[in-house]
Amino acid sequence: MAAFRHISDAVAVITLSNPPVNALSSALLQAVHKALGEANEDSAVKAIVLCGDHGKFSAGADIREFGQPSKKRGPGLLLLCDLLEGSKKPVVAAIEGVALGGGLELALGCHYRIAHVQARVGFPEVNLGILPAASGTQRLPRLIGISPALSMITTGKFVPATEALKLGIVDEVVNENTVDKAIQLAKKVIDQPLGSRQLSTLPVQCPPNAEALLDEALVKVKKQFRGALSPQACIEALRAAVRLPYSEGIKKEKELFDFLYNTDQPRAQQYAFFAERKVAKWTLPSGVSWKTASPQPIRTAAVIGLGTMGRGIVTSLAKAQIPVIALEQDEKQLDIGRKAVMSLLHREILKMEQLGQSAAASQLGSVQFSLDYGELRDVDIVIEAVFENMALKKEIFRRLSAVCKPEAFLCTNTSGLNIDEIASVTDKPQMVIGTHFFLPAHTMKLLEVVHGRHTSSTSIYTAMHLAKTLGKIGVLVGNCPLFAGNRLIWQYMQQAIFLIEEGNKLEEIDQALEDFGIGMGPFRMMDLVGLDVLWKIETELGLMGPTLSIETLACQRGSKRYSPLLDILCKKKWFGRKSGQGWYKYEKSEGRNAMSDPWLHNFLSEYRGIHKLKTRFVSQDEVIDRCLYALINEGFKVLEDGIASGPEDIDVIYNNGYGWPKHKGGPMYYASLVGLPVVLSKLEKYYETNPDIPGLKPSGFLKKLVAKGNPPLQEWQSYLGSQSSKL
Ligand code: CAA
Ligand code: NAI
User: Fold this and answer.
1) Which of 57, 115, 122, 722 could bridge to 52 as Cys pair (CB 3.0-4.6 Å)?
2) How far, in Å, CA of 512 to CA of 496, rounded?
């Protein structure tokens, strides 16, 4: 696994080799350990270079080995880092591709580090629910100081080589053969003293306010990643680096790692990691898959509609260096859209400059603003993001069909309208596909790719590939009202609204779900998305029935419970943040600070009186249960209907598009952890007391899985039998 080769000029090159990313499996660590021992004992060797095969240094510990108690990470790697640092012969790390997690720890054990200009380094452990446990939290702050180390370790971000050079993580960045350069450096430093290069012996560079900095960071991560333990543990490990000598700091690092390792969180986050890899490997029931299809290159794009979503989609394309034509319906809207896009792009440029990237503006794709559909004739892809209105979308696709070149992909960003119906007005339905972005589209990681009946496999692969180009995760789902993600969220929002009708304060509901770990409570989320958008979706999908006057508003539609509250707010033109008023009040339109609205509270008590709704005490647990189990229940229905190809797909959608806390793995993973019999019995209980809420009626698939003895999540799909997938 590790090749040890002796080269003539007294430099031994040790190559990490474990395809595809040189993950540090136990076997690889052992091999490196052996090769290092041999190099150190060989009197002909005067210096050592550590590098990686396949153009990558190492992506760190082998995540596949996690959860196997005997192969627990930590000491093996730590010992190797110490041996590298303690080597009497200088060791140079030649970093190509990535040096992540344990890979970076190995590099920090070396005396010198050279990186290729395209390499990236980082400590992504926090994303896996753990911390760098082989001295990373102790060596890094000794090399670059506490503040940048804090930022790297608590965010898990990948640092490009040029930034790593500025921070002092690497000694040199090269554009040519990194291993050759490392060999040259190794030869140069033979017999030079190594003391100042042994990071464990150096003091931590920390400013006088280091403790305050750590306290501040702790408050921030507790708020940002509610309930996640690893960001907090990372900070405590860094505190140990500030307060304690190296050897004590290492003990604390291990103690914190062991604590984290014994919680549920690392397993949930590792599940989420592999779920993301799984969804990239899509397969259709026909057998066509990512292996057999091929994507087309996207060199130019167009976006139609520059509202909340369109402006973010334009920015996302420009960030990926794809030139975009941005189209609106009239001069006024075009001007508003232009200003919004320019402001988003300006922010991106500032961010890039802060990261030390020169000529940032030139690294963005150009954006051309237009009212003329004729300009779209040569683009490779068009993404439509106009109002959620079938007639309007059809009109636009008719025009696109006439104007665009035959090989152009025609995408709709609809939240849940029928892709087949939209495609039916074109003469190339195979090129029509749903690309459902999430708000804000330039930062959210998810792209739900919706497969229509006629969508070709090339269109699917191109959209999935585009997701990757945009730095997003594409998840392929089937076509049904609201698709996968929104189907689940609809049930969740409905429960939240019913709960305020029953007497809960919306602030309490948001708080309860945010305390659970969801990024934004349902009412804050609805205000962000736009109540008008939700209202249009309801209208288009016929979810609301006839509109009634406020006096005659009924809380039932037939035998089903229905809340008219969204209609009431929208009729007042209270659309959420965008209008400065929605479920909450905002200091101004587009304001961020959600304030309680006394009018709404008074109105709700009056409303309960009119509709004779009984106010009752609902505990925080019931709030969480009803909202989450309704969402999870719909997840089982989505699986049963063949709209998602597995529970992992739903979890990736929720972790990356809806602010589900990754340390809880995703809603379906959460259900499996709680235990399906518990989920079922809670749903049965709530459905019994609310028989007019169909969302609480337990899914047949959930019942079947319980009857089959609560099998592990990975086996659920096998119980769907011959049911045909809608993918
Ligand atoms: N262990 C095991 N397998 C890994 C791996 C790892 N650390 N990193 C990536 N892989 C696997 C993926 O599962 C995938 O396998 P399949 O082809 O079978 O699906 C394959 O390598 C390629 O990965 P990607 O599809 O993600 O490829 P990419 O080019 O898009 O990204 C990457 C490459 C940036 C390295 C990305 O895979 C990544 O971020 N990996 C995780 C890195 C990480 O978190 N390292 C820290 C590990 S924990 C640690 O190191 C601490 C410790 O010692 C205690
Ligand atoms: P929006 O109301 O903010 O913007 C729509 C834009 O389309 C407006 O700027 C309007 O001028 C423009 N437009 C209307 N007719 C047009 C025409 N004929 N030609 C060119 N432009 C035209 O709406 P938003 O929120 O951006 O939604 C757009 C689409 O994205 C909808 O289908 C919506 O359901 C969907 N969506 C919305 C999300 C959200 O969170 N707001 C999330 C994901 C999808």
Assistant:
1) 57
2) 11
What is the CA(263)–ligand 1 centre distance, in A?
Answer: 22
Distance, in Å, from the CA atom of 112 to the CA atom of 183, rounded to the nearest integer, reads 11
Six-digit token pair at 640?
């049963």
Inter-axis angle of helices 230-243 and 265-280, to 10 degrees?
120
Considering the domain architecture, whether residues 119 and 242 belong to the same structural domain is answered as yes
For ligand 2, whether the C-beta of 533 sits within 6 Å is: yes
Predicted confidence at residue 721, as pLDDT, reads: 72
User: How many angstroms separate the alpha carbon of residue 538 from the centre of ligand 1?
Assistant: 41
Q: Which ligand neighbours the alpha carbon of 537 most closely?
A: 2
Q: 303 to each of 296, 337, 349, 539, how far by Cα in Å?
A: 18, 11, 21, 24
Tell whether ligand 2 has an atom less than 6 A from the beta carbon of residue 135. no
Cβ of residue 308 lying under 6 Å from some atom of ligand 2: yes
The answer on 241 and 344 residing in a single domain is: no
Q: Are residues 230 and 364 in the same domain?
A: no
Q: Tell whether ligand 2 has an atom less than 6 A from the beta carbon of residue 422.
A: no
In a domain, 385, yes or no: yes
Confidence tier at 540 by pLDDT (50, 70, 90): confident
Give the distance (Å) from ligand 2 centre to CA of residue 311.
10
Q: List, in order, residues 6 or more apart from 466 with CB less than 8 Å away.
A: 295, 298, 381, 435, 447, 474
Atom from ligand 2 closest to the CA of residue 532: 2
**Within this chain, do residues 90 and 199 fall inside the same structural domain, yes or no?**
yes
233 and 305 inside one domain:
no
Q: Residue 149 Cα, ligand 1 centroid: separation in angstroms?
A: 22
Q: Which of 214, 232, 252 is the last residue of a domain?
A: 252
Q: Given 421, 443, 477, which residue is the final one in a domain?
A: 477
- Using a 6 Å cutoff on CB, does residue 102 contact ligand 1? yes
Domain that holds residue 431: 301-477
- Taking the model in full, what pTM does it have? 0.94
Q: Which atom of ligand 1 is nearest to the CA of 468?
A: 30
Ligand 2 pocket member 310 (CB < 6 A): yes
**What's 143's domain CATH number?**
3.90.226.10
Ligand nearest to the CA of 526: 2
The domain that holds 466 is classified in CATH as 3.40.50.720
Query: Nearest C-alpha to atom 35 of ligand 1 is from which residue?
Result: 59
Same domain, 220 and 361: no
Domain count along the chain: 2
Q: Which residues pair with 112 in a beta bridge?
A: 92
Domain match, 87 and 157 both? yes
DSSP state of 289: B
* Residues β-bridged to residue 12: 6, 48
Token readout for 278 is: 């799984």
Q: What is the pLDDT of residues 125-159, one digit of tens each?
A: 999 999 999 999 999 999 999 999 999 999 999 99
Residues noted as catalytic: 105, 125
3-state secondary structure 407-432: CCEEEECCCCCCHHHHHCCCCCHHHE
Q: Are residues 205 and 335 in the same domain?
A: no
Residue 581 DSSP SS3? strand
82 within some domain:
yes
